[in-house]
């Protein structure tokens, strides 16, 4: 029994790392730019396809493809903010919601058009191997994904708290008008925020590729959990998103073990609804960190 | 003079629309018309909430599905005619909108949208589980009653066309009536600035609740019609996210918060879809939704108030081409 | 993006274009009713409804390929001799993996052409709708879909192959080949496909001497299969029946390996018994069991068709596609006896079908005869096993073409 619980906790933490990368991206954009990016999952999907093609046609290991995917998606993020998102800021709810929503639809269907609905998998030497912690199995591919996810989250935290640009970002998030008065260019800050966010999504994709199949709708699978984690962890709170993601991963895993696998989704949705309705500020209250 | 001409146009349109199934006999074409009428109707229902009151729901499939299941359960379990089932479905949907609204109206903007998505998903998941009463995940087909007008089953496809047309007319009349009533003014006020509206004494929660009930009722009716038309129901079809999306899409593209917006939007999008189908042989390989999303992005960036404005502007320009006086620039664009 | 990946993308696009164009060509040919090199008789129209786009696209396309091959085979053998050597004319329609489209496309197919019979649609929900439309339009429909609902209250739907409940029974019986006291864990996705199959398993387990130690529905589209695998492990099961779509199957099979779980797996039918499964899972598939209503090694006819198909398309002829080849010949046989292309007469001829040789009888057991409810009274599924990157029939004894490899 103890082994089962320990295994469940390990499983939950490992996948929680991936949720964290996605949810941090969502919460970062929300905190700084103040819009909900409905297309975040699709950038994870793009990261997976980039990784897939590099692996299949150039033999590059998916983890190495991080070096390609992250900068690429950073640039995409900058372009996205500068040319699209910027145009709908301040225009009200409808354009802000439906722009990223339409983007999500567009990305999914262009991928479907180009690459069909077939599942793409990559086989690496570590896809099925595990290391042993006593009787608990820790799959290597997921462990690597977790470690890299934590490193990237840590790097982001350092960036936000210890660099000028990061601090400027937090300032713009907390009070855009004052930030502008202090000489911070909001658009530049927003571009970096969106760029970093999409880079993290792309990283999640690359980290998933060794053990997860890629297909056009794959982003939708992860984005749901990510959104719930964002809400729990307080919108705009990066650390909160990270902690909430790990908690959700573990809760999901234990829930499957001791309650039931399909009730899980209903419970997740209900938790989302109730949190939104009764404690919309999430578990950590407060503002952007 | 202009008013009479407008009425003439409307009259002409009504005649054409009424006569269409008699002129066009291709089953395929009539199917397209039915689809246009049905989704225009759902769009009109959505528009009451999303267009006038600016409550952007992405979970209207919840009411669609509830309406569909109510009438189907009444039909198959209790032999009740779907005509009555349609009304019952609308009522069930309306009743459901109360607790859902109570929960979701605490939220604004994107959070409201997310919460509506979640509600529709929860309903789908629940109906996937309800095997005994509601056939669970496998769904069921409608019993084959042949030509049974009293049970909403017809051999003649044009019958479905006229029902859908009737529903759309109902939706438009209701919208028109609301637009011109006190409720319409309050709706717009709440939509523009809820806090300001509250400040001048408008009970925003009550208005939102009321319009949600109407919107849900109409959407529930559409659900009944749909399953009678395709002879089949299952949770994934009835609570499909695509229906929620299309309801919002046609209104936004056509003219959010306007009477004819959803109709214009549906005609445009369906015409595009039919064109794509004839070019590419299929619209489901991603082509249709790719084009739809591009249209949506274009509308959002260029004409957020919807394309209806483009048409009325063009009409104005054509009609007033001869006039020499300067015109005020439009606020759009 | 590098040159070789661009090339690969272009290749993919090229192949897709070709598929679109060839499908359009068939559609066009069908619409024009171009007769196939026959002077004497009017061609007979058969409709084929498959999802060549959308989520089932890959399987749907394979089915369409097989359908065209089957029609070609019938025509090369002389067509319908009782109707002056009339050739079969295949009219394909894409149901786009969508319920509404199935409704309108079936209608369009029937109302726009004089059809003698139809076959389709792979996915149960789609087939149910198509059969409703066909029933009301009084056109006979043959299908390999296993949903038991297809045999309720219909006169025009015929199912030559095993039913969902029979699959379950076969899986349970196969469990006993692997272990004396099978302790079974059933993991199933909670929509139509998963629920109908798993219910069959639950109802029949005790009767077959198997104990179900875990019966776990889950929502398709897993982010992670390890919690489920963990649960399977802690249940003490020695046999796993996953009823899932391919994406989840991949995660489940890999998940089993990741925790070194020694458990026999019977993945049922559907996504488990198509070439794509092996492509994605690699040698993890070796030794995995499945069930199918048709396999390419059940008799020499099947092997012959498979060889032709494999040469043309590079993959073995999978369950649904092979089954529909047989269905095409059943329709041809009915047309012969009916002596007319009238759908009502063809329907009656299908109902009177009784064959035990030739391609029309190419199914497990080698006999087809329809009962009053449209079911083939001899239909039964076969158990298959992935052996050396191919599917071999291993169960029941009468149908086995290879021995079960114990892993």
Give the C-alpha Rg of chain C: 21 Å
Largest sheet of chain B: 2 strands, antiparallel
- Strand fraction of chain C: 15-25%
CATH architecture of chain B: Orthogonal Bundle
The most extensive interface between chains reads: A-C, 50 and 44 residues
**Which fold name corresponds to the CATH topology of chain B?**
ABC transporter involved in vitamin B12 uptake, BtuC
Tally of individual domains of chain B: 1
Q: What is the CA-CA span between the terminal residues of chain B?
A: 30 Å
The CATH topology of the largest domain in chain C corresponds to Rossmann fold
The secondary-structure element order of chain B is HHHHHHEHHHHEHHHHH
Low-confidence stretches of chain C: 1-38
How big is the Rg of chain B? 20 Å
End-to-end C-alpha gap of chain C: 43 Å
Shape of chain C: globular
CATH superfamily of the largest domain in chain C: Response regulator
As a percent range, the share of strand residues of chain B is: under 5%
Q: Which sequence of strands runs across the widest sheet of chain C?
A: 2-1-3-4-5
Helix and strand pattern of chain C: HEHEHEHEEHEHEHEHEHEHHHEEEE
Tally of helical segments of chain B: 15
How many helical stretches of chain C?
12
Structural class of chain B: mainly alpha
Keywords:
heterotrimer; A: 289 residues; mainly alpha; ABC transporter involved in vitamin B12 uptake, BtuC; two-stranded antiparallel ribbon; 11 helices; 2 strands; C: alpha/beta; 2 domains; 5-stranded parallel beta sheet; 4-stranded parallel beta sheet
């Amino acid at each position: 029994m103890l082994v089962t619980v320990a295994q469940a906790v390990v499983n939950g933490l490992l996948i929680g790392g991936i949720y964290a990368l996605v949810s941090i991206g969502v919460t970062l954009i929300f905190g700084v730019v103040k819009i909900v990016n409905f297309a975040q999952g699709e950038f994870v999907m793009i990261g997976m396809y980039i990784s897939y093609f590099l692996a299949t046609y150039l033999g590059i290991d998916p983890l190495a493809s991080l070096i390609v995917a992250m900068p690429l998606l950073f640039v995409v993020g900058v372009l996205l903010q500068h040319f699209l998102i910027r145009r709908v800021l301040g225009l009200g709810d409808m354009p802000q919601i439906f722009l990223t929503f339409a983007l999500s639809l567009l990305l999914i269907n262009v991928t479907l058009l180009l690459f069909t609905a077939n599942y793409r998998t990559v086989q690496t030497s570590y896809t099925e191997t595990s290391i042993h912690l006593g009787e608990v199995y820790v799959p290597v591919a997921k462990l690597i994904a977790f470690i890299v996810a934590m490193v990237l989250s840590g790097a982001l935290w350092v960036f936000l708290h210890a660099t000028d640009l990061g601090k400027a970002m937090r300032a713009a998030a907390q009070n855009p008008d004052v930030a502008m008065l202090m000489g911070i260019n909001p658009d530049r800050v927003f571009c970096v925020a969106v760029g970093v966010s999409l880079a993290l999504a792309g990283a999640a994709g690359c980290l998933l590729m060794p053990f997860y199949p890629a297909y056009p709708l794959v982003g939708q699978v992860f984005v749901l959990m990510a959104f719930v984690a964002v809400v729990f962890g307080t919108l705009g709170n990066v650390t909160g998103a990270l902690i909430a993601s790990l908690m959700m991963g573990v809760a999901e895993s234990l829930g499957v073990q001791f309650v039931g696998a399909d009730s899980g989704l209903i419970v997740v949705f209900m938790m989302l609804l109730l949190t939104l309705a009764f404690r919309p500020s999430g578990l950590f209250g407060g503002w952007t960190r | 003079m202009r008013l009479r001409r407008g009425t003439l146009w409307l009259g002409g349109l009504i005649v054409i629309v009424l006569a269409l199934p008699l002129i066009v006999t291709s089953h395929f074409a009539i199917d397209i018309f039915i689809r246009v009428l049905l989704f225009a109707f759902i769009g009109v229902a959505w528009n009451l909430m999303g267009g006038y009151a600016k409550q952007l729901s992405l979970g209207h499939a919840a009411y669609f599905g509830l309406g569909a299941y109510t009438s189907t359960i009444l039909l198959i379990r209790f032999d009740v005619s779907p005509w009555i089932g349609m009304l019952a479905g609308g009522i069930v949907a309306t009743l459901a909108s109360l607790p859902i609204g109570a929960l979701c109206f605490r939220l604004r903007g994107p959070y409201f949208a997310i919460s509506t998505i979640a509600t529709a998903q929860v309903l789908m998941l629940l109906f996937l589980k309800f095997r005994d009463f509601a056939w669970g995940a496998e769904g069921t087909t409608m019993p084959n009653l042949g030509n049974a007008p009293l049970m909403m089953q017809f051999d003649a496809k044009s019958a479905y066309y006229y029902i859908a047309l009737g529903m759309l007319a109902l939706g438009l009349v209701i919208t028109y009536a609301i637009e011109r009533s006190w409720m319409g003014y309050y709706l717009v006020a709440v939509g523009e600035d809820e806090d300001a509206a509250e400040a001048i004494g408008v009970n925003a929660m009550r208005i939102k609740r009321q319009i949600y009930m109407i919107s849900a009722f109409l959407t529930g009716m559409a659900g009944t019609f749909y399953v009678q038309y395709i002879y089949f129901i299952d949770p994934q079809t009835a609570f499909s996210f695509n229906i929620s999306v299309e309801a919002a899409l046609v209104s936004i593209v056509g003219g959010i918060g306007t009477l004819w917006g959803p109709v214009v939007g549906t005609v445009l999008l369906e015409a595009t879809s039919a064109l794509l189908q004839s070019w590419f042989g299929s619209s489901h390989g991603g082509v249709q939704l790719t084009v739809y999303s591009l249209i949506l992005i274009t509308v959002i960036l260029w004409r957020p108030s919807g394309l209806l404005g483009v048409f009325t502007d063009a009409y104005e320009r054509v009609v007033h081409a001869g006039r020499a006086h300067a015109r005020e620039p439009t606020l759009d664009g | 993006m590098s040159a070789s990946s661009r090339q690969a993308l272009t290749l993919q696009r090229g192949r897709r274009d070709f598929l679109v164009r060839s499908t359009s060509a068939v559609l066009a040919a069908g619409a024009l009713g171009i007769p196939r090199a026959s002077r004497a008789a009017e061609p007979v129209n058969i409709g084929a409804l498959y999802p060549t786009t959308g989520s089932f696209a890959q399987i749907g396309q394979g089915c369409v390929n097989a359908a065209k091959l089957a029609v070609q085979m019938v025509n090369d053998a002389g067509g319908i001799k009782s109707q002056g050597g009339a050739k079969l004319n295949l009219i394909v329609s894409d149901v786009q993996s969508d319920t509404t489209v199935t409704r309108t496309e079936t209608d369009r197919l029937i109302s726009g052409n004089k059809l003698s019979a139809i076959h389709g649609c792979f996915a149960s929900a789609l087939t149910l709708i198509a059969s409703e439309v066909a029933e009301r339009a009084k056109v006979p429909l043959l299908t390999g879909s296993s949903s038991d609902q297809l045999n309720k209250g219909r006169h025009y739907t015929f199912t030559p192959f095993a039913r969902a409940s029979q699959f379950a029974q076969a899986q349970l019986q196969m469990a006993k080949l692997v272990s004396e006291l099978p302790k079974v864990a059933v993991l199933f996705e909670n929509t139509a496909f998963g629920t109908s199959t798993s219910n069959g398993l639950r109802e029949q387990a005790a009767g077959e001497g198997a104990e179900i130690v875990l019966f776990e529905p889950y929502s398709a589209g897993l982010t992670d299969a390890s919690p489920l695998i963990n649960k399977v492990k802690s249940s003490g099961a020695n046999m796993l029946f996953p009823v899932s779509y391919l994406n989840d199957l991949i995660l489940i099979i890999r998940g089993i390996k990741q925790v070194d779980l020694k458990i026999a797996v019977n993945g049922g039918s559907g996504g488990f018994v198509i070439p794509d499964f092996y492509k994605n899972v690699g040698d993890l598939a070796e030794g995995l069991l499945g069930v199918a209503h048709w396999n390419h090694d059940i008799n020499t006819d099947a092997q012959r068709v498979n060889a032709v198909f494999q040469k043309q398309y590079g993959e073995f002829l999978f369950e649904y596609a092979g089954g529909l080849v047989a269905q095409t010949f059943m329709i041809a046989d009915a047309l012969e006896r009916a002596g007319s292309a009238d759908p009502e007469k063809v329907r009656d001829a299908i109902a009177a079908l009784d064959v035990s040789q030739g391609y029309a009888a190419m199914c497990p057991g080698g006999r087809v005869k329809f009962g009053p409810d449209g079911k083939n009274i001899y239909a039964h599924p076969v158990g298959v096993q992935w052996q050396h990157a191919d599917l071999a029939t291993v169960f029941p004894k009468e149908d086995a073409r290879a021995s079960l490899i114990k892993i």
